[in-house]
Amino acid sequence: MLARDAGAPKAMGAKMLVATSLLIAAFAASSLAHEGAKGVVKERMDLMKSQKSAMKVIGDMAKGKKAFNAAKAAKAARDLATTTKKIPELFPKGSNGHPSEALDAVWTEWDRFTGDAHDAEAAAKALGAALEASDRDWKAAFQAMTDACKSCHESFRAKEKHGHH
Questions:
Q1: What pLDDT does residue 37 have?
Q2: What is the radius of gyration, based on Cα positions, of the chain?
Q3: Which of 18, 115, 139, 144 matches a 20 to 30 Å C-alpha distance to 155?
């Protein structure tokens, strides 16, 4: 019995090593997608990454993974309103191609693209207003924000081969 118990810490250590290795590999894979990004392409990738973080703050509260904190959620929504407003200026003509994930449709369908960006900004402002007013329907406003992001990404961002986004 003692011999078997003595192996338990080694097995746990091995499992932890595997889990850590997988996390590092996943992080490296997501970093590679943005590797080599410079200038405005890097700026917009960084902006989208900050938006993803803000959406996670609110999303974790919506799913009950984190306790609801109106102040934190409202700040994240304000950040989204500020950053969505900047989206069109971060897509100047000629800023497509690797490592950008933007499809040519951004520029060939510019009015629709900027319309989607404005819709996302409006959704972010509505979400912020709902959160600041302690509106019980803030989750519906969050869903509208999620839908605005999804709509633009489905139309204007290349699908990732590994299903990461």
A1: 82
A2: 20
A3: 139
DSSP state of 159: P
Q: Could you please report the per-residue DSSP string of 12-42?
A: HHHHHHHHHHHHHHHHHHHHHHHTT--HHHH
CA distance 68 to 37: 36
Which two structure tokens, joined as six digits, stand for 61?
A: 């509260």
Q: What does the alpha-carbon distance between residue 42 and residue 47 come to, in Å, rounded to a whole number? A: 8
Helix, strand, coil fractions of the chain, as percent rounded to 5? 75, 0, 25
Cα–Cα distance for residue pair 131/144, rounded to 1 Å: 13
The amino acid occupying position 3 is A
Is the distance from CB of 82 to CB of 120 less than 8 angstroms? no
102 strand-pairing partners: 157
CB 116 within 8 A of CB 148: yes
The model's pTM: 0.74
Does the N-terminal peptide bond of residue 99 adopt cis geometry, omega within 30 degrees of 0? yes
pLDDT, tens digit, for every residue of 94-114?
999 889 999 999 999 999 999
